Amino acid sequence: MVTESVASYRQFSGSLLPEIADRHAWIDEPVTRACEYFHSMPFFGFIRKMESHREFKPIAMELYHYAVAFPKVMGLMLGLVSYSESYMTPIYAEQIYGQRANHRLLFDWMIKTRLVSGAEELNRYIPGVETNACINFAYQLAIEQDRDKWLAAVGFGFERCNRDLFSMVAPKMYELGADHTCFDKYDGVADVKVLDYLNDNLDSRRRKIILSKVLEGITLWAAMLHSWIGIATMPMFDLDGRVIRRASLDCH
Questions:
Q1: Is this structure's pTM higher than 0.85?
Q2: Which of 127, 107, 131, 109 is nearest to 119 (CA)?
Q3: So where are the chain's domains?
Q4: Residues 91/197, Cβ–Cβ less than 8 Å
Q5: Which of 31, 142, 152, 242 has its CA 20 to 30 A from that of 25?
Q6: Which carries the bigger pLDDT value, residue 4 or residue 182?
């Protein structure tokens, strides 16, 4: 069980990160495997092949709405936390703080690069089904108030996907002469650190439930990112993080 003394602000040295990942290999290894498959999909190839930052506009429009929503989702998680788990308050508050201005930084970049004419263009934009599905997935977890599911699926899974996205986009924007601080905000370790806040006494069945939820989130993230470039896909993963081959419906 995580105690108040454990669930507090802690400084992690780089040398501790492999130790954390090893301690939670039951979740880290399948998620890493699923993300490796995700990286082989067309979205990341699209980013690599961009020849102008303007090709990023459809992605940025959706990403803005995602970034607006997430501090609110995290605020709900914080606002509903029980007194018995109030020791998690600084952790949730830290998550909100990290997300607080992401949409404004992205907006500044979009204005600076003339991708949008102003806030009204963004306000009129209707985000896609897949973007809303990712946001609603997090809302569901916040309402459920299952600390382990939240930390694993949002704090670890979603943050891993966030990190992977921006670690690809940031150097590409620099290459295109369109770099901005909004793309340089991930240190590459935040997703691993959160694993040490999971309950210490998770039995095999509980671990499978949590892992299933994390992989569901990665499925939704993959579907969301591909929808931003006009591709409909939803890769699903088994509990080893390997993609499940499914028959597809031919509508032609």
A1: yes
A2: 107
A3: 14-227
A4: yes
A5: 142
A6: 182
